[in-house]
Amino acid sequence: MDATTTTRHKGLLRSRTASGDTQTAIDTWYRAAVERGQRICTVGTLPLTGTAAARETALDPADLHPSAEPARLVQRALGDGYQGLGVLIHADEVIATTSERFHDAVETALTDLCTDHPVEVLCVYDRPGVGTDCLDLAVEHHEGDLREEQLTVRRTTDVVHVAGEVDMTNLDVLDTALRATALARGRRLRIDLSEATFLSAGAAHVLHRHAAVLRQAGAHVELHGAAPPVARALQLVELSLRSPG
């Protein structure tokens, strides 16, 4: 899957107790879609603040299921003079009204739309909520850009990019992303930490554990670009793992 395509299909893990950064991310995505001249389609309820005049078209989850041929929505938007389609979808509401399997199919259809048509997608998963209970699903479908309030994870063919802070609140995101990468990738993996600003001891343990498992299986794993504070966290954990007892 090409990185441009996956970046157009973005995932956002929204903390319901967040300071507002995730809400800003939703508004920023919305404004950019409007500026691109796209028709905005929404599935579920996501409050938008400080945006351009409302121009959303509400969709039912079934409209985006592969069986409904959602490419027709794009063709209709283009025929109406828009430059494409922007889809804002609340995963928690889709799964609550359908099923996890149904949402999985919708996510696959959205990736296909981004591959073949002028479409931008933002899928919002709540934490706690579907963004915790179905984290595997969120990670699987948003390789190119999965964000939460402090952390962004991007995965390409043989690189995992980790940006921001990893602590106990989002350690599960990093763990799940590395596990998915290990299952999907081949014999070489680079973990790019050049944009990581903080790693807790738990996060450093997770990185070492995944790297060790892959290396034992014969893969070449490289942790790259760690800034001094991040490198120190990794070194301290490595020393503790080597210490007897």
TrEMBL record:
Signal peptide: none annotated. Coiled coil: none annotated. Residues 159-245 form the STAS domain. The lineage of its organism: Bacteria, Bacillati, Actinomycetota, Actinomycetes, Pseudonocardiales. This is STAS domain-containing protein.
